[in-house]
C-alpha cells in the first residue's frame, strides 16, 4: 500500500530556508495529487500547499510567495521549498497523498508521512 517518508526538517534562523522531501511508494505516484500540511502545538492542522498530477499548485496567504511545492515523478518525490522562514512557521510538517480521480484539484487522502519537525528561531 502507499507509504510516504519525509525528510529535510531542522532548526533554522528566521529568514533562512529549508527544503522538505517526501518519497512515495506502493502505487503509481504520477496520478496522485499531493499536499503538505503543518501542525503546531495547540493549533489546528493547516494545509500549506498542494500540487496536482498536472503540476498545478496552490497556497494559502500565510505562505504564498515564500513556499514552493514541486514534484519529480521520476523520483516519486514531492518537495516543499520554504524560504524567508518565520518563527510562526515552526511546526511538524506532513505530506499527504490525495484522492485520485476526485474530480477536484486536491482532496485529502488516507495516506500520511510520519512528519518532520521544522523549528525557526528568532
Describe the structure.
- The protein is mainly β and 122 residues long.
- The chain contains no helices and 11 strands.
- It has strands at residues 3-7, 10-13, 18-25, 34-39, 46-51, 57-58, 67-72, 77-82, 91-97, 111-112, 116-121.
- The strands form 2 sheets. Strands 2, 4, 5, 6, 9, 10 and 11 form a 7-stranded mixed β-sheet that branches. It has a 4-stranded antiparallel β-sheet with strand order 1-3-8-7, with no helix packed on it.
- Strand 4 and strand 5 form a beta hairpin.
- The N and C termini lie far apart (41 Å).
What keyword list fits this structure?
mainly beta; single chain; four-stranded antiparallel sheet; 122 residues; seven-stranded mixed sheet
Summary, kept brief:
The chain has 122 residues and is mostly beta strands. Helices cover 0% and strands 48% of the residues. Strands 2, 4, 5, 6, 9, 10 and 11 form a seven-stranded mixed β-sheet that branches.
Amino acid at each position: 500500500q502507499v507509504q510516504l517518508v519525509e525528510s529535510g526538517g531542522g532548526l533554522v534562523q528566521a529568514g533562512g530556508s529549508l527544503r522538505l522531501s517526501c518519497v512515495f511508494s506502493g502505487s503509481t505516484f504520477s496520478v496522485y495529487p499531493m499536499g503538505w500540511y503543518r501542525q503546531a502545538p495547540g493549533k489546528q492542522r493547516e494545509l500549506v500547499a498542494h500540487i496536482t498530477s498536472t503540476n498545478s499548485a496552490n497556497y494559502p496567504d500565510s505562505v504564498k510567495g515564500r513556499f514552493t511545492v514541486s514534484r519529480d515523478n521520476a523520483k516519486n518525490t514531492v518537495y516543499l521549498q520554504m524560504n524567508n522562514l518565520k518563527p510562526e512557521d515552526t511546526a511538524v510538517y506532513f505530506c499527504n497523498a490525495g484522492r485520485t480521480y476526485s474530480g477536484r484539484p486536491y482532496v485529502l487522502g488516507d495516506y500520511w508521512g510520519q512528519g518532520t519537525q521544522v523549528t525557526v528561531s528568532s
